Amino acid sequence: MRQVDNHPGSGGSGRADPVGQLVATLEPNPPLVVDELHTATLLERQGVTDQEARDRYGCEDVFELAGEMFRRLPRRPDPPRDETSARPPQRFVLLTHGLLYSVPGVVYPAVLVEIGGPALLRGMLLATTLGWIWGMGTSVTAYRLLGQGYPQAAARIWRRLSLLGLGIAAADAMMLAATGAGDASLAVFVVLQMSFQLASGVLVFYGMEWRLAVIVLPTFVAGGAYLAHRYDVGHAVPVLITAVGTCVLAAGVAWWATGPTRQPRDRGAQPAPVRPALFSVLPCIAYAVLSALFLLYNTVPFVTAPLDLALAMAPLVVGMGTVEWRTHRFNIQAVELVRRARTTAEFHRSVWRLLLRELALCILTLASLGTLLLLALSVAGLLTPRGMLLVTTYLVLGGAYFVGFITVNHGHFSSILGITGAVLVLNIAATNSMAQYFAPYGEVPIFLASCVVLLALLLMALRLNIGDVHHYR
């Protein structure tokens, strides 16, 4: 780092030291910073640019100014380890999330026998969409409360919002059954799937993936046996009984995990900021709504399609744990890049290359899973060109999810909401007006084009801010 030569009295100028004055503005209670990275974050949030660092403080850029400031800040003891802080998730645990997400799909063939195709389709859409949106809102709220030092409040919010969500699901399912195909069994199906989605969210939140894996194992075995018997109607009931038991057991363990006596005490005497935490997740919920609509609108036509189309999403579902893991790896490696970079321009180039590399690894992993599926379908004589194209489409969508996760972590909701909403509208318009010209299953190429556009636009938006240091504190 180049020496800053404008200290008080240096060069006989008699001018006040600009860097010293900047440090003095942080007194008498300077923020706790542990390295140059945190100092650079502080400067960026105060609006200090590279140009200002050169013109006013005699440094090459914000990085150099941050290093100079960090050496001058008073040393403070390291804070005690927060017992409420979540431990970094392990790689293998993250990779198992994809399998856990796919549990409801194992039971769908047996549910189809019990309630019929139209009712299954309507119930699946309701349960999946509501569970996705409600689960994301609940988990983000709980994470915010936990991060602010309110573990008991986070557990209470899990319990209360989960019960409220199940009530809403039951009311919506009964209304759905009264207005179309389905009966009381449809409502039971919706409530059970919703309860499993919320319970699995609780267990993942508290790092209990292994317990969840043990709970769902019988359902995987029963569903696999049902498929092996080629959808024999006589074997559907044991699968359904096993699935009900899995949902009930998962809900019971989730209720136990959120018990007040299992959580550390909340910090301080002030009540937990539950209402601000709830309002702060509205952008996340909006993104979940748009993502769910985009996925489900383009997936519904293939639920009752030939097997290669119906199973095309399986590699994405199973590989979502990999997408989650690569997102986590990107965040860790980006912080390391900040600490090694000597200029903001160097960091911007390095972190962009890192993003593209992690994106390529995500798509490569999903492509490997997709290749296994295509080979199995080909051996069985069930593979069609449309099936190959749809598998490719979900690979691109997985890449878009990865970039979307990074964008959400950076807090740039205006760009991701605008892009996802615009692509959704264009996708619906194109499907309704052009699918007939690409038959059979003309929705597939339109879906692929929409996913490519979504990924490209998200990358363009992220390119503008990925080099901002404050994202990698």
From TrEMBL:
Keywords: Membrane, Transmembrane, Transmembrane helix. It comes from the Bacteria. The chain crosses the membrane at residues 92-111, 123-146, 158-178, 184-205, 212-229, 235-257, 277-297, 303-323, 359-383, 389-408, 415-438, 444-464. This is DUF2157 domain-containing protein. It comes from Streptomyces coacervatus. The lineage of its organism: Bacteria, Bacillati, Actinomycetota, Actinomycetes, Kitasatosporales.
